[in-house]
């Protein structure tokens, strides 16, 4: 997720440079879109950094972000006929979701790292 956040901030910088260079902005506001990318990229970067540092609050933002990226990937691949962009975005989003919902990640998120990796190895659940 850190990479996704950095990518969004790089995109914001590209949009600002294009706007300053005088790119045609009749269809879209480059600076307005850049502000949006800075906000979203900053949040995603913060969530990714939180996960790297072992903070649990980053997981919720990560899941939310990946769920938002799935329809974006679908639109890129199918609606915009840009599968070269949509397929990698979808693969990354699905991979991050799978990792965030893996048994090890769920144990970590629940604060129960001492339990064995397989539920067949443990006794009855005491929740």
Please tell me about this protein's structure.
- This protein is mostly helical and 127 residues long.
- The protein has two domains: 1-55, no CATH class; 56-114.
- It contains five helices and no strands.
- The protein has helices spanning 2-21, 30-52, 57-79, 83-100, 103-110.
- The longest helix is centred in the N-terminal third of the chain and has 23 residues, at 30-52.
- The radius of gyration is 19 Å and the shape is flat.
- 17% of the residues are buried.
Topology readout:
Elements (H helix, E strand, L loop, with lengths): L1 H20 L8 H23 L4 H23 L3 H18 L2 H8 L17
Helix pairs in contact: 1-2, 2-3, 3-4
Largest sheet: none
Strand content: under 5%
Q: Specify the helix fraction band.
A: over 70%
C-alpha Rg (nearest Å):
19 Å
Low-confidence spans: pLDDT under 50, at least 5 residues? Answer: none
Give the rounded overall mean pLDDT.
Answer: 86
Principal-axis shape? flat
User: How many discrete structural domains?
Assistant: 2
Number of helices: 5
Distance from N terminus to C terminus (CA atoms, Å) equals: 31 Å
Class by alpha and beta content: mainly alpha
Number of beta-strand segments: 0
Order of helices and strands: HHHHH
Looking at this protein, list some descriptive labels.
127 residues, mainly alpha, 5 helices
Task: Give a summary of the structure in a few sentences.
This protein is mostly helical and 127 residues long.
């Amino acid at each position: 997720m850190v990479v996704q956040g950095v990518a969004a901030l790089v995109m914001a910088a590209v949009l600002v440079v294009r706007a300053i260079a005088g790119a045609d902005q009749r269809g879209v506001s480059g600076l307005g879109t850049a502000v949006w990318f800075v906000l979203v990229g900053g949040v995603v970067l913060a969530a990714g950094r939180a996960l790297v540092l072992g903070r649990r609050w980053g997981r919720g933002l990560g899941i939310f972000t990946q769920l938002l990226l799935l329809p974006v990937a679908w639109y890129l691949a199918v609606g915009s006929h840009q599968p070269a962009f949509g397929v990698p975005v979808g693969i990354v989003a699905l991979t991050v979701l799978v990792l965030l919902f893996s048994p090890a990640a769920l144990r970590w998120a629940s604060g129960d790292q001492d339990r064995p990796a397989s539920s067949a190895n443990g006794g009855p659940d005491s929740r």
